[in-house]
Write a structure and sequence with these properties.
Elements: E1 2-11, E2 14-24, E3 29-33, H1 40-46, E4 55-60, E5 64-65, H2 69-77, E6 79-82, H3 94-99, H4 117-129, H5 145-158, E7 163-167, H6 175-192, E8 195-200, H7 203-209, E9 212-217, E10 220-225, H8 232-238
Parallel strand pairs: 3-8, 3-9, 6-7, 7-8
Antiparallel strand pairs: 1-2, 1-4, 4-5, 9-10
Helix pairs in contact: 4-5, 5-6
C-alpha cells in the first residue's frame, strides 16, 4: 500500500500537481487518464520520488515515509518502472537489458561483475513471460518498438516487484501493438498479483483494462471511478482545451482513492 499525503509539485510559479491525497492497495490495475500536461506523469513519478514533491509526503506500508535514502532505495527496488521511450541500451542484448532490473539488489562494486546463475535464470524467465526468450541474445536496436517495450516489461519483472509504474508505455506504438503490449502487461500483473499504475491518454485502452480510472486535468483529479462510469462528458472534461496556467494560489484538491485487492 502507498499513501500520498497532500502531495503537490510545483515548478517555479506553475503547479504541476495540486495538493492531493491518494491511497493505493495491492493488486489493482489503475490507469491515470488525461491529456498531455494534465499531471499524469508528475503524479506517477511521485510514487517512487522520481519527481520530488514540493510539499506533502509519500508513505509505503512496511517502510514508512520515503524521507531517507535507505528507505527510498528499498522502495525503488520493489517498484518496476516502464517508460514511454523504453530507456534501453541499444548495443546491448535483450537479456543484458533485462538483467539491469537486478542491479538494485547489489552494491555498485558487485554490479561490475557478472550476475549469478540464479539471476540469469530470472532474466530468461522474464523474457519468456513476454514471449521474447528467442530474442535473448539479440541486440535491442535490432528489435521492433513493440518488442523493445516488451523487453522493458521483462526488465521490470526481473526486479520481482510489488508495484509496476508505467509512464505512457504505449504512446509511441501503433494502435494494434499498443493494445497487445497493454494486454500483456495487464495479464502479467493479474497473474502475479502485482499492483500497477499506468498513465495513458487513450480512453479506449483505459476503459478496456483498468480496474479504476483516475482522471486528471490541469494538475487536479477530476474523475475517480470504475471504467464503466467514464462517460463522454467526463472524457470531454479531461481533454478540454487547456485553461490558463495554474498558480500556487489554486485551491487544494484532496481525494482518497481506495484500491481494493483484486
Amino acid at each position: 500500500m502507498i499513501k500520498l499525503n497532500n502531495v503537490s509539485v510545483q515548478f517555479g510559479n506553475v503547479v504541476a500537481l495540486q495538493p492531493t491525497s491518494i491511497e493505493l492497495h495491492q493488486g489493482q490495475f489503475t490507469v491515470l487518464l488525461g491529456a498531455s500536461g494534465a499531471g499524469k506523469s508528475t503524479l506517477l513519478r511521485c510514487l517512487n520520488l522520481m519527481c520530488k514533491p514540493h510539499a506533502g509526503n509519500v508513505n509505503v506500508a512496511g517502510l514508512g515515509n520515503l524521507d531517507d535514502r535507505k528507505t527510498l532505495q528499498t522502495h525503488r527496488r520493489q517498484t518496476g518502472m516502464i517508460f514511454q521511450q523504453h530507456q534501453l541500451i541499444g548495443r546491448h542484448t535483450a537479456l543484458q537489458n533485462v538483467l539491469m532490473g537486478r542491479l538494485g539488489y547489489h552494491s555498485t562494486f558487485r554490479s561490475l561483475f557478472p550476475l549469478s546463475h540464479k539471476e540469469q535464470t530470472i532474466g530468461l524467465q522474464s523474457l519468456e513471460r513476454v514471449g521474447l526468450l528467442h530474442k535473448a541474445q539479440s541486440r535491442i536496436d535490432q528489435l521492433s518498438g513493440g518488442q523493445q517495450q516488451r523487453v522493458g516489461i521483462a526488465r521490470a519483472l526481473a526486479q520481482q516487484p510489488l508495484l509496476i509504474l508505467a509512464d505512457e508505455p504505449v504512446a509511441s506504438l501503433d494502435p494494434a501493438t499498443a493494445d497487445k503490449v497493454l494486454a500483456l502487461l495487464h495479464q502479467i500483473c493479474k497473474e502475479d498479483g502485482i499492483s500497477a499504475v499506468i498513465s495513458l491518454h487513450q480512453v479506449d485502452l483505459a476503459k478496456r483494462y483498468a480496474d479504476r480510472i483516475i482522471g486528471l486535468a490541469h494538475g487536479s483529479i477530476v474523475f475517480d471511478a470504475a471504467p464503466h462510469e467514464l462517460t463522454t462528458t467526463h472524457a470531454a472534461e479531461l481533454y478540454e482545451q487547456k485553461k490558463s496556467i495554474v498558480t500556487s494560489h489554486a485551491v487544494p484538491t484532496r481525494l482518497n482513492v481506495q484500491l481494493t485487492s483484486a
